[in-house]
Design brief:
Length: 405
């Protein structure tokens, strides 16, 4: 998703204005870390998780700059060469079974102490599995924009999530908070272990970024780190963008909608994930009308209509809208991650006209966190932005936010 930042079409003058700001904001973390800082201790609360590492390549500043040459001045963001590695590590499936997962770690070739940034990627359809971070595929987010970010002075930890890379034989637990958080946290632990092995000196700063499914994963990761790794992996700041944090309200929004919804195929994926992980074991005919139940049985990613009333059964709609199906309601509330109190600074970015993930997800999170007494939470509405046009302002704003810390 972040690659759209450098490829989006906006005016020539806006490109220059954006890039000058981007240079100032992105370059600043590296400048802040020129003075020696205490090295971060390796996580010791649990057994090591790192199982292997493979060097993908070392890339010069000139090479990194050439990847974003379509945008004027983008090459000026690059400061250091980077080395990119594919890591494998232990994590657990939603069912609790230990498995091997993978991700990419991007390390600036620099002698200063470095902060770590955990980057959670957005939705990848199964047909796009080769775009997962550990493949470092040409044109992917991690290959382009995230590599430029690493070259400014961040060690970037980029989990594939379960269902991609080393764990591609498993179904991806799409939009399941616990799995996205644990796979990302274990990758972050593996990245710290790897840096200790390679004698890459880290400071105590851990930043979290991600947009769309990555925004949801970032929110879940922030919550998990503060609950379980507060001393070993303290969160410095996070900036999730456009995540579906209020799952139960989102379900009601979808099932009461009268307007066309272009994202219903992804919601089918969410329902499939929750039905499996929480052992609801409902037949597809419980959720979907014909002929879609039969078509989705044959192909879970088959095309579906944009009108929810044509796709979902009246019984399923009423079960959600009336909150009359306790097991189903429990699966939705289990994935609500909007109502908790973060301790580290957190900035929510969201387009006010988002047509994939409605803005109320971030508004509800901000309101709930404020009510719980959170004092370092900010809401940054992107006026008039939809799910795709908001990525530029999200990226600029998120970098500005974390650069303060």
């Amino acid at each position: 998703m972040l690659r759209h930042v450098l490829l989006s079409r906006f005016s020539f003058s806006s490109k220059y204005r954006f890039l000058w700001l981007f240079v100032a904001l992105v370059a600043s973390p590296a400048c802040k870390n020129t003075a020696p800082e205490p090295a971060a201790a390796a996580p010791t609360a649990e057994a090591p998780v790192l199982t292997g590492s493979t060097l993908i390549g070392e890339y010069s500043a000139a090479t990194l700059g050439s990847r974003v040459q379509g945008v004027p001045l983008a090459g000026s963001l690059v400061r250091y060469p980077i080395r990119v590695y594919r890591l494998t590590y232990h994590t657990r499936t939603p069912e609790g079974t230990e498995t091997t997962a993978s991700g990419a770690v991007l390390v600036p070739v620099a002698t200063m102490t470095l902060p770590v940034l955990s980057y959670q990627h957005g939705t990848l359809a199964p047909s796009s599995e080769g775009q997962a971070p550990s493949y470092y595929a040409t044109g992917s987010d991690v290959w382009s924009v995230v590599s430029v970010l690493a070259s400014t002075g961040y060690v970037v930890s980029a989990p594939d999530y379960l269902g991609y890379g080393a764990s591609k034989s498993l179904p991806h637990p799409y939009e399941q908070a616990a799995s996205l958080a644990s796979a990302s946290a274990d990758m972050l632990r593996a990245a710290h272990e790897f840096c200790q092995q390679q004698k890459v000196t880290l400071n105590q700063k851990n930043f979290l970024l991600g947009y769309s499914e990555g925004g949801y994963a970032t929110m879940a990761l922030h919550k998990l780190l503060e609950e379980k790794y507060a001393t070993t992996l303290p969160v410095t700041a996070s900036a999730p963008g456009a995540g579906a944090y209020h799952k139960s309200a989102f379900a009601r929004y979808i099932l009461s909608a009268t307007q066309p919804l272009s994202f219903l195929s992804t919601y089918v994926w969410v329902l499939c994930t929750y039905d499996r992980i929480y052992a609801l074991n409902r037949p597809l005919s419980f959720y979907y009308q014909e002929p879609y139940a039969t078509q989705l049985q044959a192909d879970p990613f088959a095309a579906v209509p944009s009108q929810q009333a044509q796709l979902f059964t009246p019984a399923f709609r009423q079960a959600v809208l009336n909150n009359s199906d306790a097991p189903l309601a429990a699966t939705l509330t289990a994935n609500d991650i909007y109502d908790w109190q973060p301790r580290a600074p957190l900035a929510l970015f969201h387009g006010t006209a988002d047509d994939y993930v409605p803005f109320f997800n971030s508004q509800d999170a901000y309101d709930a966190m404020q009510k719980r007494g959170a004092t370092q939470v900010e809401l940054h509405p992107i006026a008039g932005g939809n799910h795709f046009s908001s990525t530029t302002e999200y990226t600029l704003g998120a970098y500005a936010f974390i650069s303060k810390y």
